[in-house]
Amino acid sequence: MVEVQRLIDSICSIPVPSAPSMCPQSPDTATSTSVKVRWSLSADDTVEHYQLYYRKLGDNTQDEGAADAPLRVKEMFCTVRNLQTGSMYEFWVTATNSAGTSDGSDRAVFTTVPAAPRISNGTVAVCQSAVFMEWEAGSSRPPQSYALDFCQVCCGCDWTESLTESVTGITSCKALIELEPSENYIFYLRAVNGGGSSERSAAITVRTTGTQLYLMEQTAHLALSILQDGLTIVYNEESQLTDPPTIHDRFTSSATVMAQLVPVRGRHYWEVEVAEDTEYRVGIACTDTPRDAHFGSNITSWCMRHILTSSRSKFEFLHKGLTPDLRITITPTRIGILLDYDTGKLSFFNVDICQLLFTFSQQFQNLVNPCFALESYGILKVSHNIPFPEFTKLL
Hints:
Layout: H1 2-12, E1 21-22, E2 35-40, E3 49-56, E4 71-73, E5 77-80, E6 88-97, E7 100-101, E8 108-111, E9 124-126, E10 130-134, E11 145-152, E12 165-170, E13 174-178, E14 184-193, E15 196-197, E16 204-207, E17 214-215, E18 224-226, E19 232-235, E20 256-260, E21 267-274, E22 280-286, E23 301-308, E24 313-319, E25 334-340, E26 345-350, E27 355-361, E28 368-374, E29 378-383
Antiparallel strand pairs: 1-2, 2-5, 3-4, 3-6, 6-7, 6-8, 9-10, 10-13, 11-12, 11-14, 14-15, 14-16, 17-20, 18-19, 19-29, 20-28, 21-25, 21-29, 22-23, 22-28, 23-24, 25-26, 26-27
């Protein structure tokens, strides 16, 4: 009888389970604060429950960190909640029955969905045929890519139901999209990683009727301040810091700031409003123009300059430090600037009297951006999104 009982016990004994195998993360199995984890096990194993372990990974996926308290589950899947947005976690699992606990499984990395990107109209440039936009990641860890969804907007349509195009696989925080002229568009962004797609960003609307630009604050000389509207520039020497941070793009010699224009050729037009007693320079420069040189003094910049002398207002049209000999009798307070890549011309106008002031003839080999400089205390305001005036069509 003893031998028979031993035989029965050996037949009925249950072995310790083998180590489970983690399944890789599948698309759309995560939210911004949760992930759904799955694993598999040999069909011959008997399991009473599983212990799921996980820990958050740092920016370096090899960083070691303490595991959170394990979760006890019955099924071969588990949705883990209360995680950090756009973060990576390492998971592993053990299986347990009355005979004991298995070895730990292989380890798998899962990612929560990133936060929605941050974008505003202050970083959008538009022309008649394209839009250029920049944005910021919503999470500290950059996503794998971005998706940009957009459509034309007509009166009475529901844009949420009429998306017409998507641009996916964008790996940087900027995009240039070709559009149709004289149309309204609405855009939103999503961040994408292995866990899925984020919520949509705030919507951005654009109209392709004129030139829309934005001032790049990282280029602004320390004597300049840009007001909240993003288009008004103020000269104030007291705003300079005694120990300023080093920024490669910042102008350091003249009080200049560069604006971002849509990086496409064609025709672009914008205006500047100034007081008669303001000393300034306005025009264009190549994106790599030296930051330690005066605007208009080199081969990569062209400008109109206004300075006050003891007897009159003096105007110069500078390129490589040279200017033609001419006199302007009516001091403009609204200056129109027309850049025409096709004809190779940069023209300046007195908008109030529709007068052409001067034209540079130059075949621009490289793309250029608007620049604005103040030579003493004063205010300069940029106006954009202006339909091309009739007087510009005569050129």
